[in-house]
Amino acid sequence: MAVNGTDFVMTRATMADLDDMLAAEHEAYGGVDPWPRYIFEQELNRTRERLYVVLRHPETNSLVGFMGASFRPGIREVHLTNITITPHWQGREVGTFFMSYLMTLAKQSRFSRVSLEVAVANERAIRFYERFGFQIIRERRNYYGKQQHAYDMALILKNGK
Ligand SMILES: CC(C)(COP(=O)(O)OP(=O)(O)OC[C@H]1O[C@@H](n2cnc3c(N)ncnc32)[C@H](O)[C@@H]1OP(=O)(O)O)[C@@H](O)C(=O)NCCC(=O)NCCS
Q1: Residue of 78, 75, 130 whose CA lies nearest to 104
Q2: pTM across the whole model
């Protein structure tokens, strides 16, 4: 799996990846843990409706990043639940690779929409999503805690786009 000239190994995430995923998130959010371990465990156990993938460096086996999505066939929507790139690998198109991969999967399965939530304060992530064409649908006040608002963002997938 070549991303920006580097070959990585991408696999479906399992419980064996959990410690590394938690560590990556802790680092990427500056010491804050948005998701406790039990949420990750629940997510990884829901193998039918969820897809979590991890990207590792082939030589060191260190975790480069991971992405998770929830598939909602009833409404033909894929919901991005998590995307985390370790700080060392940020800005090197790994996030772009994950998003492109998710959109390809969604289109192959004939889903029509990708949705996500993002903290209003996370300007870099909002810019990142907007580059793919995501639009802010609405604001959710205090979604992540007191005065920690979120945006719902969505992208409509067009045939062949
Ligand atoms: C947001 C996030 C997922 C983006 O992933 P990423 O791998 O850093 O994204 P990319 O490298 O594909 O693109 C991001 C930026 O790098 C820049 N970039 C990409 N490749 C580059 C390169 N070769 N040289 C210089 N800049 C580059 C892009 O222009 C973009 O700039 P901007 O964010 O300042 O507008 C990642 O930064 C992250 O994990 N952040 C912490 C967790 C988080 O906020 N997750 C989202 C929660 S909703």
Answers
A1: 78
A2: 0.93
